[in-house]
Design a protein that fits this description.
The protein is an alpha/beta fold. It has a domain of about 150 residues: Metallo-beta-lactamase, Chain A. The chain contains seven helices and eleven strands. The strands form two sheets. A six-stranded mixed sheet has the order 6-7-8-9-10-11, covered by helices on one side. The chain has a five-stranded mixed sheet with strand order 1-2-3-4-5, with helices on one face. A hairpin with a 2-residue loop joins strand 1 and strand 2. The relative contact order is 0.13. The chain binds fe (ii) ion (2 copies). One fe (ii) ion binds next to loops.
């Protein structure tokens, strides 16, 4: 896990990137944009040669997830793994032809992606927040990588230290989920699926990982959370009068 590649001076949200290596082959999850590329590709070489990178895996198609795609396509043989909803949009991040035959388009129901001697599970997480969205479960470490779910807005050492409790709630977690998650119905459907998994750690793309009791506390909080369209009303759709 890389937690500190976005400078605190940058007017950009902190973001975590992930490298998984098994039997000499690797995948990167949510590598980020141009701010993280140089440092990530250099540090990655300590663990794996760029030529052994099988996949760049994107939970969704946001700039902080995959805006560096052109550089990964140029410097490694990796294929991009992304929702079928975004498979034809992602090439817009790249120069013409760079992604030809190099996109694995994941159907809505997800699947298991083989690399090395293992499989990474691609779990449906649609509308959390993106319409075509996946989370990733590593059956060896039992870590669930949850992209923009479980996010807190913290920087530096705080982002690198796992939380054992959500009391107090970490900075930014409540307003982030209220606005970015689409609805409580979606949260409940997702909870039904993941409660059957054994999870050692839940690791979001921004902020601190959750472990131990914090995971159950987080699930119980989501189960009751009104968010997204649950909170929208006519007052949010008025013709604007203000200047910006
Ligand atoms: Fe996002
Ligand atoms: Fe994000």
């Amino acid at each position: 896990m890389f937690t500190d590649l976005v400078s605190e001076e940058a007017e950009a949200v902190q973001a975590n990137q992930f490298l998984l290596v098994n039997n000499g082959e690797g995948v990167v999850i949510d590598p980020g944009g141009n701010m993280t590329y140089n440092e990530l590709s250099l540090t990655m070489r300590k663990y794996i040669a760029p030529s052994r990178l099988d996949y760049v895996i994107a939970s969704h198609a946001d700039p902080d997830i995959i805006a560096s795609l052109d550089r990964w396509m140029s410097s490694t043989p990796a294929k991009l793994v992304i929702s079928s909803l975004w498979a034809r949009f992602a090439p817009h991040f790249c120069k013409l032809g760079k992604t030809d035959d190099r996109i694995v388009s994941v159907p809505d129901q997800g699947g298991r992606l083989k690399f090395g001697q293992t499989e990474l599970w691609l779990l449906p997480a649609h509308f959390m927040h993106s319409e075509g969205n996946f989370h990733f479960y590593d059956p060896i470490s039992k870590i669930l990588f949850t992209g923009d779910l479980g996010v807190s807005l913290v920087h530096g050492a705080e982002a690198a230290s796992p939380l054992d409790s959500l009391n107090p709630m970490p900075a930014g977690m409540v307003p982030f989920h209220q606005r970015y998650m689409v609805s409580n119905k979606i949260l409940k459907l997702w909870l039904r699926m993941v409660r059957s998994l054994e999870i050692s750690m839940l690791v979001p793309q921004h902020g601190s990982p959750l472990r131990g009791p914090a995971i159950g506390e987080f699930f119980n909080w989501l189960d009751k959370l009104a968010c997204g369209v649950d909170l929208m009303g006519p007052e949010h759709y008025q013709l604007p009068q203000n200047r910006i």
